[in-house]
Write a structure and sequence with these properties.
The chain contains 10 helices and 15 strands. The protein is α+β, with helices and mostly antiparallel strands. It has 3 domains: 55 residues, Winged helix-like DNA-binding domain superfamily/Winged helix DNA-binding domain (Arc Repressor Mutant, subunit A), CATH 1.10.10; 206 residues, Bira Bifunctional Protein, Domain 2 (BirA Bifunctional Protein, domain 2, 2-Layer Sandwich); 43 residues, SH3 type barrels (Roll), CATH 2.30.30.100. Helix 4 packs across helix 9 and helix 6 packs across helix 9.
Length: 321
Amino acid sequence: MRERVLSLLIQRLGRSVSGEELASLLGVSRTAVWKQVRALRRLGVEIEVDRHGYRLLRMPDLLMESEIRARLSTRRFGRRLHLHQRVASTNDLAKELARSGEEEGSVVVAEEQTHGRGRVGRSWLSPRGGLWFSLILRPRMAPQEAPRITLIFGAAVAKTLRRLYHVDAGIKWPNDVLIREKKVCGILTEVEAELDVLTFLVAGVGINANNSTQGFPEEIREGATSLREELGRSVDRNELLAELLNEFERSYEVFLKSGRGSLLIDWQDLCSTIGRRVRILTPRETIEGEAVGIDEEGALMVRTPTGEKRRVLYGECIHLR
Ligand code: BTN
């Protein structure tokens, strides 16, 4: 209902609509309209109220189901959308939904996360203005294959950012998306499996979109950026989410159909890690050397100073100068 009020005001952006007209278009009372307007104003939507009615002053930066759907060209991804103002973590909610049978392609998205989670048990700051969402997938594959899905989604994010905003987005292995060597997006993939088969996979994507990174703690701030900071303007997060889901579905279908190797070609092109000197921190050791490629499983190949070639499937990667 709140979204329907907002949609009508958006259609008349800058012009007044009377409470009576809104009420009759929506089939509710004028008091009900007023309640929704109040709720919208509390969310920061600038609506002027005068004797002629209500007037939306600016296009609000809010996630809206109708705006997302209008740009979605997928068959399944995002067709079921769970949109929230504030959750602990969209990944946690998506996992709960998946456990109770939620179908492949469902998406959980939130304006804000209070306990956003990052890789290796880190927390992930998720203030309003960013894009925080999780996608539920049920691919028939072994759990060990899951990292490849994360790789293709990393590539899909980089591609989409390049196409929509003409930024020089690249991937840092395994799936951070960077602009000018600063992290703009991270992906956390979590799986549940029975014996050797995946029951479901949740791909959680966090993009610093219209949020500022200035309030982030210093150690994170230095290596982070947001789209707004890079572009000097806000982006349309509804469009961004829809375009990401369009690209994700395309890449996922190609991946399932035409064999696992195909997408890695794309990936190598977008990856700024290949050819770099890197330090990889794994739970067991630290490996330094030159990143020379990735293999079909998404493992990074590193040539160490002694000439030895190491294959690293998991780990944290640092680009060295
Ligand atoms: C990383 O450490 O780089 C991964 C960050 C992933 C953050 C996203 S935001 C949406 C989803 N929900 C979470 O709690 N985490 C992921």
